[in-house]
Write a structure and sequence with these properties.
The protein has about 350 residues and is mainly α. It is built from 13 helices and no strands. The two termini are about 30 Å apart.
Length: about 350
């Protein structure tokens, strides 16, 4: 009888997921944003704000901070990449002269200059090199980024549903948690309290890591753009910071600026910027971000790293939040189910008495 009481709810959950399969991403993002921003919502309520005023303010802030700038930046980046593509086409017709600093390299100066003369200095060499290494990368990249903004607009229904669900969660959070707590305590009474505490901690830790890393990469790469002589380095730094919030955004940003510098006839600055961006990205993604995320739920470095990589490769952006949560559960279980896996107080919305 106990097994049947577990099988029936699970079967119903699977059937419901199948029914709502096209809207699960919207519901998931609404839930994640509610968990991430709930402490701020409660702070507004303690200051005397009504639930409607607090919910409306948070929705406007989220839209102005992320959605609107993302649409603008993707359109802007698409036009800039189109300019880079034209510049690269012009350079490809004439070739790129070898920079003077190649001759000063120890040991490899002669083969480096020879390789440059054979692959980049001749007309058509740059295009052949790009096609042989990354295929039609620049045209594909230009087209992809150009349609991202219109893709966001085309999926406006899902964005609207996510924001609407988030607004309802702000208004009725305690009631939602009361129903969730009741179901969780009936189905998995032993483990539900741990799930209830670990989930918001891991989600907020991931959000904190993403935002701080985005700020770091925006500032560091913005300075690098200025040193390399890129146009409008402050604006490019802001764009890089926003793009760093999504997987692959930061390398897309500094690679595009490197191509822009190469297209303007500054191959040494382009190469230096690309190498520094790759080195900085390696340090941040492999050391800084896992440390920021893991410290909230007492996770070791490798656990967070593989949780992030596995989550992103499997579920995309949502996997950034799911992966660390699964790792937090794994290490809580490996530690014998003790409470040291939880470092922060439970600050999710509690059910009304």
């Amino acid at each position: 009888m106990h097994v049947l009481s577990l099988v029936l709810p699970m079967a119903f959950a699977v059937a419901l997921a199948f029914l709502l399969q096209h809207f699960l991403v919207s519901l998931a993002w609404a839930g994640l944003l509610a968990v991430i921003t709930w402490p701020l919502h409660e702070r507004f309520l303690r200051q005397g704000w009504s639930r409607v005023a607090s919910a409306s303010t948070l929705l406007v802030l989220l839209f102005l901070t992320f959605v609107a700038p993302s649409i603008y930046l993707f359109h802007k980046l698409g036009s800039e990449l189109a300019t880079v593509q034209r510049l690269l086409g012009q350079i490809n017709q004439t070739g790129v002269a070898a920079p003077q600093w190649l001759a000063s390299l120890p040991l490899i100066a002669e083969p480096a200059i020879q390789w440059w003369q054979e692959n980049l200095a001749v007309p058509g060499g740059l295009g052949a090199l790009i096609r042989s290494t990354v295929g039609d990368f620049v045209p594909h990249l230009t087209g992809t980024v150009r349609v991202l903004g219109s893709t966001i607009l085309a999926n406006g229904l899902f964005l609207f549903l996510a924001l609407l669900t988030l607004f309802i969660l702000y208004l009725h959070g305690p009631a939602v948690m009361r129903y969730t707590d009741s179901a969780g305590e009936r189905l998995i009474p032993r483990h539900y309290p741990v799930l209830r505490r670990l989930f918001p901690l891991s989600v907020r830790g991931t959000a904190l890591g993403l935002c701080l890393v985005a700020v770091i990469e925006g500032v560091v790469l913005g300075v690098a753009y200025w040193l390399a002589g890129a146009p409008a380095p402050a604006l490019l730094g802001v764009i890089t910071g926003y793009l760093a919030l999504i997987p692959g955004g930061a390398p897309l940003a500094f690679s595009s600026v490197s191509l822009l510098l190469l297209g303007q006839g500054h191959p040494d600055a382009a190469l230096g910027l690309f190498c520094w961006g790759a080195f900085e990205l390696f340090l941040v993604d492999k050391f800084v971000r896992p440390r920021l995320i893991g410290q909230r739920v007492n996770l070791p470095f490798l656990a967070v790293l593989f949780g992030l990589l596995g989550g992103v490769s499997t579920l995309g952006v949502l996997g950034l939040f799911v992966g660390p949560f699964f790792m937090a559960l794994l290490f809580w279980w490996l530690r014998g189910g003790h409470g040291e896996a939880i470092l922060m107080p439970d600050d999710v919305p509690r059910a009304a008495p």
